[in-house]
Sequence to fold (581 residues):
Amino acid sequence: MTINIEEIEDFLEISIPASDKLILESSRRVTGPGLLWEKPGAILDVFSDHFDKQEIAEVWLGEIQNILDVLEWGGSQTKVRIFDTGVNLAISATIDLLYSAVFVVETSWHLTASKLLGQKPIDFDVLIDDLRTVIKKEQNSPVLALQKVAKSKNIDVLWDDDFISLGHGKGSEKWGINDIPAPEDVNWSALHNVPVALITGTNGKSTCVRLSTAIAEAAGLVGGSTSTDYVKLGDEVLDYGDYSGPGGARMLLRDKRLEIAFLEVARGGILRRGLPLTEATGAMVTNIAADHLGEYGVNSVAHLADAKFAVAGTLSKDGVLVLNADDELVVNNGLKASNTICWFSLFHDNDQIVAAKKSANLCCWVDDGIIHYFDGNEISLKVTVADIPITMGGAARFNVQNAMGSLCLAKAMAIPDPAIIKGLTTFTSTPDDNPGRCNEFIVNGARVFVDFAHNPHSINAISDMLSNLDGNKKYLMIGQAGDRSDQDIIDLTKGAIAFKPDIVATIDLVDYLRGREMGECAEIIKNECIKNGISAASITHFEAPSSAAKFIIDQLMPGDLVLLLALAERDKIFQLLKDAQ
Fold:
């Protein structure tokens, strides 16, 4: 039978009782490890400030279990997560029935909401008949047969609406969803996984992805990466855009030229779709701080940590989880993980480093300006911090951490030490190597740094770096997106001015007003600057980042220090700086 995904996707439209007492936020398919668990299936989010959350969960679980029993979905499991403003409910499903799983969850919510609100539901038998019809349309037993054999051989299976693929990169093969071969017709000897690492955290993801890829390429490997900027294989950009979700991972991992991969994993991708693989070689959590809270029931930094640690569920049985031992939330979650862990820290006496060395476990630390890597038996690799360009001689502490994390991932992926050292010591903070991340330019003897920092944690980190650098006169260009709260903008401003700029250029982000008026965010920034001792006469407003950047560039003298927070018009600003050099 031919599977018609477009027909299946729109086959049912399940009515949901309308009420401001129970709000259905979203329902979606999940491909793998995510916030609640590691299973593929479907998840639905409900918000309520009227009903008791435990009551919602109990009624809902009863309704969905009744549906599963009638449908004879014996292998399907459910999981509920109760949070401060609502409830998530997930259902597991085989990979050929993810749309059906969504319809099952939505049907269960129709019945639950009807019961809680005292409304009459659609006839149960009608609902069940509809579900059986769509399940029959979506079932694809050849896909399950292929998955079963692949799993027995520890070969990763990636799937979407159009294709299923086995293995990664040069060891992969893919087929159309309606052209699945029988397992005995597959050349299994040609299929295998390549080393893959997933990198998540609040900050440092893109830098670690790019640095790790540079290390792999120093080893002569064909390296690929996904990020919020693009999907890249070697020197070729396969596509531009935000590819920090499973779609970007599949695009890269199905390219038969690929030999090693580093995947940036953002919060949104984890929460919306889950992660697409379960045979990764390594995974890293750089740090965890407040950013983009309030979606999908992730309302606190602790909730965010739970989401980020979904990467642990992607690891193979021999995979290594690389964790920042200087971040309290990372440590708290890491200590609950069952994976092999490699801790890294800026301090040799960090508790996790001391414990790891005592227990003969993997770890990495800095002592006397030198990064030490301990392989469980001995210190097998040392690198001087000052030899790593992105650390700015150690002033950029956040990039010392990024370098350590990337080193640990490289070791987990069996990259030789000479290549690790070469990659670390040749990768630079330039627009070519690491665009938008602490890029340094020398203009008329002044040091100019361009960064995409947009949350308090990242802005505080770069301000800390600049505070360690000398500057005759200091300049700051700053703006913020309109969907940040007033308090968020105040906190971001406090972090940015911590390096004590003498001149501040505030900017509007025309494409990111998001409901605010022109100049509104800039006025909040200006007021906070004045409150912290910067005179109004030292603050100038511009309606475009490039105009503000030119204003600063035209004034620069030898010994000056500049931070341009380029959240928009980055390429224009780069060109202005190159022209001024």
